[in-house]
Amino acid sequence: MLRDAWLVTKKDLLIELRSRILINQIAPYTLLILVLFGFALDADTETLRDTGPGLFWVSTLLVAILAIQRSVDVETSDSAIDRLMLSGISPTSIYIGKTIGLYLQLIILEALLFVVMVVLFDMSVVNYPLVIVSAIVTTLAISSSGTLYGVIASGLGVRETLLPVLFLPVLAPAVIGATRTFGDAFGRVNADGWAWLGLLSVIAIVYTLVGMLTYGNIIEDT
Amino acid sequence: MQRTEKQEFTTSRGTRFMGISLLLGIPTLLIFSFFLSPADDNMDDAVRLIYVHVPMAIFAYVAIITTGIGSVFYLWKKSRWWDTVAHASAEIGLILCGLVLVTGSIWGRPTWNTWWEWGDVRLVTTLVLFLMILGYLALRQVPANPDLKAKRASVVGIIAAVNIPIVNRSVEWWENNTLHQKSSLTDGKLENLTLFTLFLGFIVVGISFLWLMTHRFRVGWLATEIETDGIAGVIEERLSEGSFEDGNPNYQRKDEVQ
Questions:
Q1: Residues B159, A155: contact at Cβ < 8 Å?
Q2: ipTM of the modeled complex
């Protein structure tokens, strides 16, 4: 199962590497969001430092929507998903593979976003392990639910509007937890980041399990 | 398929009984809430909102759990009956969640001196639950194949139901980040008339939930019947257009058609 999943992941990453949409379009969009937040908040560095953790995860979610749509487009254009299903790979393997593919893309974007935020907002990290573990867990929650919701919203003719309506509320608890964790890691809020990480882990595990169990039911109609 | 006269309505003896019970129960609850039960030492008259706020919150959870159960059974049995249950329950859950948020805000103003507190995890997660159900219903409104929509909505419904424990246990998990008091019921702080009125609130809101659920389910089921019978009806109508025996003036024999 994992070998099949890795094949799907490699396929998605190879397509991204060749099309360069992640680097040429989505990454600049990520930077643009952060710059616009700077303008919107009057370029007050102290305010930006306080709100930085939240802005980071809101930016990540906005970027994730584009990455999810891209991930679904790869399968729906030219009915590629039909060929993938006919290849004998199980829906669970497809789900895991696409989740890992999306996960790795988001991690790259988050790394870029993190560096730019630290530089532009003049932020300093006080707890690096918390930042890294929090990003790993939260990104799993985003990619596992994103892969599932991307398929749910596809093929109905209203994907662009329906996906955010479905996807963003589901991730809201994760954003609350991740913001608190990052806030603690940046020394900006008085919260126990590791305790919030427990919530993030539960969300990530639950969404991944639900995705693995239900993906097969919806993928066949895409 | 012949439809009987009875199927044209969503009423039955059971729903009439529930309706009459509500006609008696709601005024009784209002009398107990506003006149007979005492004001609280700390919250004063604001405590009277507990008689609707808490039962509505509990039944909002019940509604979303029902949606989750209906969704699981739909994916398992592929039965439109379960899908209709899930859909009906989600609509009532949305209304209850909305009312919980409104009554919570009204309660929060005199008690916590704020309409809305972002630091309160339970309030925020109830809002999130509300938005998730809103998304579920948005998906249900998309014009698409009913089976396809039902499958996808089922997954969304399951995730919404799975989120309830996060909402419900949030007070205990993050005590320092919430304004909500611990459950007064389990702490045994409520006594006598206050406790009785609260239980009366549970009964009234519970019957309201069942009453609305039954009617909404029957409306949903009739809509499902129209969807399925509609196609059969159109086919039957088309077939009858070709029937000479029916005296159809538009009928043309095949050899007459050029």
A1: no
A2: 0.86
B219 token code pair: 């409306």
pLDDT digits (tens, 9 = 90+) for A12-65: 899 988 988 888 888 898 889 888 888 888 767 888 888 889 999 999 999 999
C-alpha–C-alpha distance, residues A52 and A59, integer Å? 10
How many contacts, defined by CB atoms under 8 Å, are there between A and B?
Answer: 72
Q: Which residues of A touch B (CB under 8 A)?
A: 145, 148, 152-153, 155-158, 162, 165-166, 168-170, 172-173, 176, 191, 195, 198-199, 202-203, 206-207, 210, 214, 217-218, 221
Could you read off the pLDDT of B100-140 as tens digits, one per residue? Answer: 999 988 888 888 888 887 766 677 778 888 999 999 999 99
Using the beta-carbon criterion (under 8 Å), do A162 and B121 form an inter-chain contact? Answer: no
The full DSSP string for A5-47 is HHHHHHHHHHHHHHH-HIIIIIHHHHHHHHHHHHHHTTT-HHH
Beta-carbon separation of B166 and A199 below 8 A: yes
